[in-house]
Design brief:
heterodimer, A: mainly alpha, MetI-like fold, 12 helices, 2 strands, B: mainly alpha
């Protein structure tokens, strides 16, 4: 609804430059843009309930199909980054919590805080400068090389290295931080003292008694990070010209493709809701005290 | 006689206030990273304030200087020049005015909105709580960056619009914090005693409960400020910032095509953003430690 209040007429854009008034009118009638706003809205909601997100003006295809054609590329990027950052952040935080306030610990902590503070698109620029332009190690744009260059999978992985590390670094840093502070909190609890006093060895205290209890706040954050990583991915996709959904939305903004924009927003929100649900279910695995009836 | 006593009492309250401020500073200053960050933020704010006096306006800056184009950093241009021969340091100094004021004002505005809605929801409960909580859930679910992008793309991106859009997308966390604080405070004896002497709802919310519950929201403001600055730079980086101003993200946007030729054009504005975000987070941690004794175990 909001989208239609905005300035700029998609019919004019679609009919192309130099189109006559009649042609513009024809486009408008075909898209239903000439009907009253509330009627358009009612039709949109009706379609939405039937799983139809509308028709993308600029791609001339249903929104869902356009969106899902780009989604695998984004998922490839975000899931890989996510899967790498989870063990990196959690294990790193766990190890760092064993020796807090050491020199190495402060250096690592400040370094990761800096990685988390740098905007991902800028980190992307810096990395493509260092590894792409100066060292010529990795390609800086696109998903695959157009001609030649060995096997497809190998080429794809080669292109993924930079965007994935940019995305993974920031999210891993946050998990590291939370895991460490959460461990330090748990380690002072009475039941940990009890575990020490009944003669458990270090591994049992850390990995059996403390780790699972310290994991809960990190899990909560994992759910919220799904959004962060998708948003970060959008900007990183623009930097590396990666043909995913972020790139799609970026282009849709400039072509005033309202159905694609609103459809994208709805799909992203659904992803967020599903991932929160998934995290809620994970709680049960980690903490047996939590039960859902 | 009675006047004297009132005076004396006022003085005691005053010295208590100074006392607690001293205590606060002593605790805050234990965190060296936080103190250093506070210093960096003050320095950047100072740069933002005085830059019109020291540097020439980048919008009126004479841009046809063929001999000055894309010069690497040297003594006359400490951070080099861009493809139009404009001094990068000047642009960053002017950009700090926009980036910092957007961050500052958006975080204040969204904190205010979050505090008001959060306290109403926590205090009244029932249908008010249900309505506000659903609103919070909705905004937390929406992808922040895209929402900001869309609204900026649709309604134009004047600096005021950018600020409002950012505030709209970051207020829910404060509302949640304040709501949960109110839930635990509203049943406490001091609230009941205020009510028993005839205090109205508004008085109880803003004069009784809020002063006791506002600290988490204050700490959160620094986090919101970092979000606001990141969002603004992201918007400007994608070319959706206010086209009539210079901000850090805008300089990065202008530098996109210079990746292979001029490292200095995009390195320095990014460093400015990263330093600011890092400082906001560290100051937030320090405040948290100084203001909230329960959270001590949680800090880094």
């Amino acid at each position: 609804m909001l989208f239609r209040l905005a300035p700029g007429d998609p019919a004019i854009y679609l009919a192309g430059e130099g189109a006559s008034l009649k042609e513009i009118e024809a486009v408008r009638t075909r898209l239903g843009l000439d009907r009253p706003l509330f009627e358009q809205y009612a039709i949109y909601i009706g379609d939405l309930l039937r799983g139809d997100l509308g028709y993308s003006y600029s791609y001339n295809a249903p929104v869902l199909r356009v969106f899902f054609s780009a989604l695998p590329n984004t998922l490839l990027l975000t899931l890989t980054a996510f899967l790498i950052s989870v063990p990196l952040g959690i294990l790193g935080g766990l190890i760092a919590s064993k020796k807090p306030h050491s020199k190495l610990d402060s250096v690592v902590t400040i370094g990761l805080l800096a990685a988390y503070s740098a905007p991902p698109f800028w980190l992307g620029l810096i990395m493509s400068l260092v590894f792409g332009v100066i060292l010529h190690l990795f390609p800086v744009t696109g998903m695959v090389t157009l001609v030649g260059a060995g096997g497809y999978v190998q080429d794809l992985i080669w292109h993924m290295v930079l965007p994935v590390s940019v995305l993974g670094l920031g999210t891993a840093a946050l998990k590291f931080r939370l895991m460490k502070s959460s461990m330090l909190e748990v380690i002072n609890k009475d039941f940990v003292t009890l575990a020490w006093s009944k003669g458990c060895d270090e591994n049992a205290v850390y990995y059996k008694h403390s780790f699972r209890n310290a994991l809960l706040p990190v899990l909560t954050m994992l759910g919220l990070q799904v959004r962060t990583i998708f948003e970060g991915s959008a900007l990183v996709e623009v930097v590396f010209a990666w043909p995913g959904t972020g790139w799609l939305m970026y282009e849709a903004i400039f072509s005033r493709d309202y159905p694609l924009l609103s459809g994208g927003l709805i799909v992203y929100s659904l992803v967020q809701i599903l991932s929160s649900l998934f995290v809620d279910l994970l709680y049960v695995l980690v903490d047996p005290r939590i039960r859902y009836d | 006689m009675t006047e004297l006593r009132a005076d004396e009492r006022r003085m005691r309250v005053g010295s208590r206030r100074i006392d607690s401020m001293v205590k606060f500073w002593l605790r805050f200053s234990q965190d060296r990273l936080a103190v250093a960050s506070l210093f960096i933020l003050s320095l950047l704010s100072l740069v933002a304030l005085v830059s019109p006096l020291v540097f020439e306006d980048p919008l009126t800056m004479h841009i046809e200087r063929p001999d000055q184009i894309l010069r690497a950093p040297d003594l006359s241009h400490l951070m080099g020049t861009d493809q139009f021969g404009r001094d990068i340091m000047t642009r960053i100094a002017w950009g700090s005015r926009i980036s910092l004021s957007v961050g500052f004002l958006a975080s204040i505005l969204s904190t205010a909105v979050g505090i008001v809605l959060g306290s109403l929801a926590g205090y009244y409960g029932g249908i008010v709580d249900a309505a506000i909580s659903r609103l919070v859930d909705t905004f937390i679910t929406l992808p922040r960056m895209f929402l900001a992008l869309l609204v900026a793309a649709m309604f134009g991106s004047s600096i005021v619009n950018v600020m409002i859009v950012i505030s709209l997308t970051i207020w829910p966390s404060t509302a949640r914090l304040v709501r949960s604080e109110f839930l635990s405070h509203k049943e406490q004896p001091y609230v009941e005693s205020a009510r028993s002497v005839g205090a109205g709802d508004l008085h109880i919310i803003f004069r009784e409960i809020l002063p006791n519950t506002v600290y988490p929201a204050v700490v959160n403001t620094t986090i919101l400020m970092s979000y606001a600055i990141i969002l603004e730079s992201g918007l400007s980086f994608l070319g959706l910032g206010d086209p009539t101003t210079v901000s850090w993200g805008k300089i990065l946007n202008d530098s996109l095509k210079l990746l292979r030729t001029a490292w200095w054009v995009f390195t320095f504005p990014g460093l400015a953003i990263a330093a600011t975000i890092l400082s906001c987070n560290a100051v937030g941690d320090g405040l948290n430690y100084a203001l909230n004794p329960q959270m001590r175990a949680r800090r880094l």
